[in-house]
Predict the structure.
Amino acid sequence: MVNSTSFRRKPAQVFRQALASVALAGAVAGTSVANADGLPDFETLVEEQADTVVSIAVVREALQPAAAESPSLQQLPEELRRFFQQDPRQQPPGGSGRGIGSGFIISEDGYVMTNAHVVNGASEVMVTLDDRRQLPATVVGIDESTDIALLKVDASDLPSAQLGDSDDVAVGEWVLAIGSPFGLDHTATQGIVSAVSRNLPSGGYAPFIQTDVAVNPGNSGGPLFNTDGVVIGVNSQIYSNSGGYQGLSFAIPINVARHVAEQLKSTGHASRGWLGVAIQDVDQGLADAFGLDAPTGALISGLSEDGPAAAAGLKTGDIITEFNGSVVHQSGDLPGLVGVIPAGETAAVTLLRDGKERTLDVTIGKFETQTVAMNNSTDTNADRLGVLVGKLTDEMREERGIEQGVRVLEVDPTGPAAKAAILADDVIVSLDGKNVDSPEAFIEQVDGFKAGKRVAVLIQRGEYSRYVAIEIPVSHE
């Protein structure tokens, strides 16, 4: 917070990252660096922290763009897929290529953190230190789902960055990035935190810290510092139509990155907890439909039949408001909370069901590449929602892996269903928490709703399920 007399920020616990063991070495209190006028003293901050930042150069025998991007991030729109590992000016013709990126030292014995997409697919990795020494690096491990990689150089007594607590990051606080945009090493840029827990279309493992710090190609993997001089994030991607900075930058929270790095160091790969749910945010319409005072929590739209959540008694339509003691404000809060719980441990899940709060204990499973089995003809009927629905054939049930529901055959583009983004070939699984098993039952349920009521409708589209809210119209027209 900035005013005319002082600069204030939330105190943060900061940690000296050793990574010599899985446990953290300990915590030390950070001291905010400020000028006499109360504004951040970025000059001192850079002077104290620049030697912990490194430039990374990679050689790829076969230039394969897909190998430099994590699978989840490939799903982003083109304007969001601006990863900074490749400088086009450094790419020679033919099958090989060079890439650039940034990183930072996290232990005195030579462990370096960076982005997975910076070093993925590299045949050679070279790290340049602040004192101009160039050292070959070994890739200890890569975790594509979080876009974090851990490197090791053969050196000792290196300056190492302090890792902070990204849970303490607040919107509006000052931050500083140091990296190698376009190969210009140790470039410092500053800004503020624009948002926390920012979810992108990739549906990645952890939500991002959004900032307005100027980062460009080559900044990937570099540290994002707060004014205490501790790392709160790893710069990962930008929003850009041109490939350059346009005011939207995204960093991986350091709590996520630290957890992954510890696992990469000890085992060479990362594992994380698995709950076995598909979730979505609660908007105002769904809040009204579920009888909530305000939109909050993570709404379960699907369950894996053999997953931990189903085994513990969670159901589609439940709204998770707290996980293992941490409040879940939105769906993006949940994956990171689940992921840090080791498989086999028990976590308490607080949820709302039928307007009542309850708490269930869930034994967390191990996350692997899994397809969540969602609770997801020809007879047609028109109804007041503006859809024609039909029976599911046995072939459809088997193909989609569902037991009940009705298939949407046509959608009136001016009707309530269209306004709720229901499409032809969707399967309507339930209405207002009650399963739908036939077109006749569907029409009977809809006709029983009072005009003006907002109803939660569970639909299945392809492999995924999702709730939408529909307001029942006054007339049947």
